[in-house]
Amino acid sequence: MVSANAPEDAYTAEPFLPDRGGLPALRRAAADCRGCPLHRDATQTVFGTGNPHARVMLVGEQPGDQEDRQGKPFVGPAGKLLDRALAEAGIEPADAYVTNAVKHFKFTQAEPKKRRIHKAPSLREMTACGPWLAKELELVEPELIVVLGATAGKALLGSSFRVTQVRGTVLEEEIHGRRERLVPTVHPSAVLRAEDREAAYRGLVADLEVAAQALG
Question: Could you say which DSSP state residue 172 is in?
Answer without folding.
Answer: E
